[in-house]
Amino acid sequence: MSVLDGLGAALAAGAVEVVDLTTPLSPRTPVLRLPEPFANTVGLSTTPVSRYDEAGPAWAWNDLHVGEHAGTHLDAPVHWITGRGGRSVDRIEPARLVGPAAVVDVTAQAAADADFLLEPEHLEAWEDEHGRLPRNCWVLLRTGWAARGDDPERFLNADEHGLHAPGPSVAAAEWLAAHPHVSGFGVETVGIDAGIAGGFDPPFPAHHHLLGADKYGLTSLRGLDRLPVLGAQLVVAPLPVVGGTGSPARVLALVERTAQEPGA
Is the pTM of this model over 0.85? Predict the structure, then answer.
């Protein structure tokens, strides 16, 4: 049996589960809001073309109006000035979009402090416990923030000082960008940077360092609590928008069930 035949059989038998990590995209899905004088992107809106009526008696379809960086989406290098000469979303090699998931769980810290910062020592402790990050991996930061996803105000968590949400420090962003095995960094929050990262040096260091190093971002993930620390395979499927700085994406994880799990 070939490797792919074995995977197909495992999927059919339920030994491998497909876990959807994507936030459903609707007009209520929260999107990042920048302060003036900066311009903002749009969320999703739809315009009906036909719906089993005189405009199309046997079919329904809609026109979509949506920002590249709405909902669960991928950040391509050209999204940031440090990656302006790099890849647009259509030029990302497909092999970079499929790879091992490495889950770093900081839910307790984020529950205690909405401005919690991931530091290199957290990542080094992870490697000390679980081994070197696997090649071509996606580091996924589990913070518990996905539980806020159906409440836009709690999810964005903004006040007069700006957004408050966990994310990497400048040093952690540099660490991830320099790690040769990391393809991308994913979060449950609205952006790959901490809410207060606009005041860092450089501002928004995850964007600055990761996208400048030809690495990619994923935002607004859900279901990270259903993944093992290691062992899942991530499939990231953005639209190949020509010249795009990013794209809404469907993000799936292939997770092997253990014999003790119900239905295994």
Answer: yes
